[in-house]
Amino acid sequence: MRLGLRYVNELKFDGEASTEDLADLLSEEVLGPIKLARDTEGLERSWQELRLRLSDQRGCTMQHGYVQNAEQQWVYVLDFDGYREGKRELNAEEQVKALAGINHYVFDLFQGSVTPETFHSFEPEEKEK
After folding, report:
1. For the chain, which residues score pLDDT lower than 70?
2. 17 to 25, 52, 64: CA distances (angstroms)
3. Is the dihedral of CA 100, 55, 110, 4 positive or negative?
4. 100-128 b/e with 16+ CB inside 10 Å = b?
5. Check: CATH 3.20.100 for 2-117?
6. What's the CA gap between 13 and 86, in Å, rounded?
7. Which residues, at least 6 apart from 128, have a Cβ–Cβ distance to it below 8 Å?
8. Which residues lie below 8 Å from residue 32, measured CB to CB, with a gap of 6+?
9. Tens-place pLDDT, residues 63-90
């Protein structure tokens, strides 16, 4: 059985993003090699997947990168899939507690992925149906 939560966040840009635009939104840890080459004017595209193993059969897959979304807008995607796998007895109270732990882990990972200014500016956005 797999129990999990997934959060997908899009950081939008007006046109293509410069390295300065990315640095204004993302933490140094997420930017990684983008900041290494000083002559870099912009990023054409990026995508990375990290699979993190935690204790108690838990894990988190983090996918992130600079891509065009379905509307052809340039965005930086931060996609987190936190989960717990394995056979367990069906226990609603225990599952709620497990989901709360996964939520806290993913929240901390998201908060560490963006600058403090970006984090404080985030508001939920309803998707049109």
Report:
1. 37-38, 124-125, 129
2. 11, 28, 15
3. negative
4. eebeebbeebbeebbeeebeeeeeeeeee
5. no
6. 40
7. none
8. none
9. 999 999 989 899 999 999 999 998 888 8
**Structural tokens at position 84:** 């717990």
Dihedral over alpha carbons 41, 116, 80, 31 (to 10 degrees): 30
Nearest to 23 by CA among 33, 10, 8: 33
| pLDDT for 25 | 93
| AA identity, residue 94 | E
**By the 8 A CB rule, do 76 and 68 touch?**
no
Q: Please, what is the end-to-end C-alpha distance for the chain in angstroms?
A: 30
- Which two tokens mark 19? 């390295």
Q: Considering only CA atoms, which of 48, 46, 40 is closest in space to residue 67?
A: 46
Say if residues 65 and 45 touch (Cβ distance below 8 Å): yes
The structure's pTM equals 0.85
Measured over the CA atoms of residue 8, residue 45, residue 23 and residue 50, the dihedral's sign is positive
Residue 53 backbone dihedrals phi, psi, to 5 degrees: -100, 130
